[in-house]
């Protein structure tokens, strides 16, 4: 099985090494392939070459066939002059990731809009998916990039977390090329998407090891509980997913 939503790298105060993350995933015995991106992409003003080096190192562990990287593009890369075509030929990226909550994408901004078109055109031309974070803050609503869903019917857009379910379902109804993932989604949310007739549009994903990070934060405020290891946490993520 494939886990479509794995992370490595810096997440707030913790650095998750690709080796610990991948080892924990494959130790499950259930998942034998994963798509990953680096949360170091969220560090303010991070240089793209930092991410590039991280991905390169991570790919030496299990290789791009088993551990497929996503190019997490941030608006900061526009100023850094990161070229999409070059980045995509330098590393064996298997898709893109966009995070409209962690990064301030502004569709009205000409530079942002043009780079988004560049990403979607590349994805369409190369049959690559685009994973988009969703949430309830408004700026990360599942319909945030709706005009692009319509404009790029041959791009597979994956709405991470399917959050909220009603807007996600509305996008599934309107666009055949829109999918979702089960990462960090409570069972009820996935059930309501399935009940609407879209079970087959949901890809399995966990958001691991962010699940581990949040567990450790909960424990800090709840002394006495034992911290789960990465492997234990991943087994739990799979059981809940
Ligand atoms: Zn994620």
Task: State the main characteristics.
4-stranded mixed beta sheet; TIM Barrel; 10 helices; globular; binds zinc ion; alpha/beta; single chain; 241 residues
Would you summarize the structure shown here?
The protein is α/β, with parallel strands linked by helices. It is 43% helix and 17% strand. The chain has one domain: TIM Barrel.
Give a structural overview:
This protein has 241 residues and is α/β, with parallel strands linked by helices. The protein has one domain (2-240): Metal-dependent hydrolases (TIM Barrel), CATH 3.20.20. The chain is built from ten helices and ten strands. A six-stranded parallel sheet has the order 5-6-7-8-9-10. The two termini are 13 Å apart. The site of zinc ion has 6 residues, from β1.
- Described by its quaternary structure, the protein is single chain
Taken in chain order, the helices and strands follow as EEHEHEEHHEHEHEHEHEHH
Number of helices: 10
* Coarse morphology: globular
What is the helix content?
Answer: 40-55%
> So what's the CATH class?
Alpha Beta
Structural class: alpha/beta
Give me the CATH architecture, please: Alpha-Beta Barrel
**Which hetero compounds are present in the coordinates?**
zinc ion
Please, how many domains?
A: 1
Strand tally is 10
Overall residue-averaged pLDDT value: 95
CATH superfamily: Metal-dependent hydrolases
């Amino acid at each position: 099985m494939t886990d479509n939503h794995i992370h490595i790298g810096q997440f707030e105060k913790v650095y998750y090494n690709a080796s610990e993350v991948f080892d924990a995933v494959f130790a499950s015995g259930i998942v034998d392939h994963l798509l990953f991106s680096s949360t170091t992409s969220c560090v303010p003003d991070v240089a793209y070459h930092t991410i590039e080096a991280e991905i390169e190192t991570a790919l030496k562990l299990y290789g791009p066939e088993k551990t497929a990287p996503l190019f997490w593009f941030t608006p900061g890369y526009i100023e850094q002059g990161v070229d999409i075509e070059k980045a995509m030929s330098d590393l064996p990226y298997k898709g893109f990731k966009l995070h409209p909550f962690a990064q301030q994408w502004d569709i009205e901004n000409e530079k942002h809009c043009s780079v988004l078109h560049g990403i979607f055109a590349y994805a369409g031309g190369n049959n690559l998916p685009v994973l988009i974070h969703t949430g309830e803050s408004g700026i990360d609503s599942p319909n945030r990039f709706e005009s692009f869903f319509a404009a790029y019917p041959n791009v597979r857009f994956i709405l991470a977390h399917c959050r909220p379910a009603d807007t996600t379902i509305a996008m599934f109804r309107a666009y055949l090329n829109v999918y979702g993932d089960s990462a960090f989604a409570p069972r009820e949310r996935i059930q309501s998407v399935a009940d609407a007739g879209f079970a087959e549009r949901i890809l399995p994903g966990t958001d691991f090891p962010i699940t581990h990070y949040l567990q450790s934060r909960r424990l800090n405020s709840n002394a006495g509980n034992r911290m789960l290891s990465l492997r234990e946490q991943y087994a739990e993520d799979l059981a809940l997913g």
